[in-house]
Amino acid sequence: MPDCAADLGELHAYPTADGSFSLQSDRFGEAFHNSAGARNEAQAKFALPAQLERFREGTPLRVLDVCVGLGYNSAVVLEALPTPPPELEWCGLELDHRPLDLALARQDFRSSWSASVLQVLEQIRDHGSWRQGGSNGRLLWGDARTMLGQIPGRQSFDLILQDAFSPQRCPELWSEEFLAGLAGRLAAGGRLLTYSRSAAVRASLRRNGLMLFSLLPAPGERPGWSSGTMAVRPGAPIPDGGPGWRALSLMEEEHLHTRAAVPFRDPSGTDDSAAILRRRSMEQDGCSLEPTNAWQRRWRQDSTG
Ligand SMILES: C[S@@+](CC[C@H](N)C(=O)[O-])C[C@H]1O[C@@H](n2cnc3c(N)ncnc32)[C@H](O)[C@@H]1O
């Protein structure tokens, strides 16, 4: 397990609006969740649009949790599995063991999960792997860019939960290359879910053959023009609207043709965030795409009549 104190910097606990607690990282200057509620957000953006009822007993469900943190996203997925549950094959990527340690040290966090989900989180903390009935999982501690490559090439996933810090703060986990690596792991019909509505992220996912949908806000979240993205590897037909998602609006489609859609590039998979942001800024300056503030102005005028 790596010594990560330097990677996330100091971590500060704070309460979110639904009563669940979350953390703020000094080094990234960002909270782990939006203030509407850590658990609400995990439920609305990850468990709901996953449509877990599609996975019945005897059907495998393969899940990749990118940036496990406090474990909310996987925990809500585990809690929402149908009964009897599918056989879950779970893999998690995370740099720092402290968020899960801090979460499991709190009684309010522990008492918010069923005994079996709590046991899974404890096994991850203590052993980096877990087994329960026909299900199992392991957490690969380290930089997700490197650890993704350690998952056997033949392994693909039905669900990828991508919950890295924002693209401006952690561009290394939103780069064209890293997203291509994730997209390449999606099985036919597989869904990548993320809170990010970034045009750069969406454009990278679309270039990698995925269909894009927009996520609806979590309860208590201030509604904006989008609350995240579901990206689907074509497989069985999927409707334009479903639990927690809708089709991209014209405004969102046009966003993908602005400078905001210039991708984060990290060709070696080892650059730091400053180098990736610099490279993108230079590419934006030299490109002929519409400036993003012109797109913003155009849509503001349209919505005010
Ligand atoms: C927004 S938080 C994730 C929240 C989490 N999904 C939850 O439900 O609590 C981002 C996480 O990314 C992790 N992280 C940051 N850089 C990373 C990297 N290069 N590789 C793997 N994990 C990273 C941080 O340690 C942090 O736990």
Task: Write a structural description.
With 305 residues, this protein is of the alpha/beta class. It has one domain: 3-Layer(aba) Sandwich (Rossmann fold). 33% of the residues lie in helices and 21% in strands. It has helices spanning 5-8, 38-50, 72-79, 98-104, 107-110, 115-127, 144-148, 176-183, 199-207, 250-255, 273-285, 292-303; strands at residues 11-15, 21-25, 30-31, 60-66, 87-94, 129-132, 135-141, 157-162, 186-194, 211-215, 229-232, 245-247. It has a nine-stranded mixed beta sheet with strand order 6-7-5-4-8-9-11-10-12. α2 crosses α3 (72-79) and α8 (176-183) crosses α9 (199-207). The chain is globular and about 55 Å long. The model is unreliable at 1-5 (pLDDT under 50). The protein binds S-adenosylmethionine.
What general form does the structure show?
globular
For the termini, the CA-CA separation is 56 Å
| Uncertain residue ranges | 1-5
Structural class: alpha/beta
Supply the CATH class: Alpha Beta
The run of helices and strands is: HEEEHEHEHHHEEHEHEHEEEHHH
Number of helical stretches of at least 4 residues: 12
Radius of gyration: 19 Å
Mean model confidence by pLDDT: 94
**How would you name the CATH homologous superfamily?**
Vaccinia Virus protein VP39
CATH topology: Rossmann fold
